[in-house]
Amino acid sequence: MKKLLFLFIALCYVIALSAQNGKVLESVEFESNLVNYPVEYSIYLPPDYETSIRSYPVLYLLHGYSDDETGWIQFGEANTIADRGIANGDFPPCIIVMPDGKVSWYINSFDGKDPWEEMFITEFIPFIEKEYRIRPKKEFRAIAGLSMGGNGALLLSMRNPELFSSCVAMSAGTFTDNEILANDSYDGYFKNIYGPKPEGKVSDHWKANSPLHLLESVDEEKLKSIRFYIDCGDDDFLYKGNSALHVKMRDLGIPHEYRVRNGGHEWSYWRTGLFDGLKYISEKFHR
Questions:
Q1: In this predicted model, what pLDDT tens digit does every residue of 128-147 receive, in sequence order?
Q2: Which of left, alpha, beta for 94 (phi over 0: left; psi -120 to 50: alpha)?
Q3: Alpha-carbon distance 153 to 235, whole Å?
Q4: Predicted pLDDT of residue 153
Q5: CA angle centred on 143, ends 22 and 105, rounded to 5°
Q6: Left (φ > 0), alpha (ψ -120 to 50) or beta: where does 125 sit?
Q7: Which DSSP letter does residue 124 get?
Q8: Dmax (CA) of the chain
Q9: Distance of alpha carbon 123 from alpha carbon 33, whole angstroms
Q10: What is the pLDDT of residues 3-51, one digit of tens each?
Q11: Distance between CA atoms of 56 and 175, rounded to whole angstroms?
């Protein structure tokens, strides 16, 4: 009898714990009319999604170079972080969408063969926000990412300021012009997306997709409508571009939060960064 009672209590405990956990769907396919490949994405649905009838805020969470739509779940533990924060009341329930950006740098390629940004803005976001119960307004929509994805979050929000209320950029792959001109690995990382390596000055396509240049070309008031959070470790090799971004935003009077914490270009840094980023984003999600 005691054994049965113990098993019953244990079962109730497991059920109670599972009720506090969100649901993850991995590598779901979206068929685009703009790119010639299926766009895969993973999605986190908060714990009460299947028992409620309300709609939720949404975070588009971008992965780094050479990763895919599973990275933030497998290595970033995004679902566990979200579950814990929601359960503790650190931030409200939200939906987290993690698209596969391949190595597109989240932009339209210079030759027009891979219009990733156009697909994301005109097809993917509308699809996601009809397929799932999402509040389709700027105030309830945020974007974040790490490394290549951190740069993607910055440029996508700056180029589409009417869409995103907050942007969290972790260890952003943002480079100064001098870094690009002196980059011996340019062809391997950038050539297929940004075009041939520039000599003397960066290309117009680079400028159109560089957060450092977008700070000057996008209307100041539109930029100020986005809440920016920039976070880069003191041992991260991407420190120059992130520091330059902070300095330029300060000089231009663009409000933002800038964090330099102990750490490098690694998942242990980004996991803690995601928790802090979700808290920052949720300030806008609250009314």
A1: 999 999 999 999 999 999 99
A2: beta
A3: 22
A4: 98
A5: 115
A6: alpha
A7: I
A8: 82
A9: 8
A10: 544 444 534 443 444 457 999 999 999 999 999 999 999 999 999 999 9
A11: 34
The single residue listed with the structure tokens 């190595």 is: 103
The pair of three-digit structure tokens given for residue 179, joined into one six-digit string: 């870094």
Confidence (pLDDT) at 1: 53
Cβ burial, residue 198 (10 Å; 0-12/13-18/19+): middle
Domains of the chain are 22-285 (3.40.50.1820)
- C-alpha distances out from residue 14 to 1, 7, 23, 86, Å: 20, 11, 15, 18
DSSP for 187-217? HHHTHHHH-SPPSSS--HHHHHT-HHHHHHH
Beta bridge partners of 143: 60, 167
Give the sheet arrangement for strand 256-259, strand by strand. Answer: 23-30, 39-45, 95-99, 58-62, 141-146, 166-170, 227-231, 256-259
The pTM of this model reads: 0.92
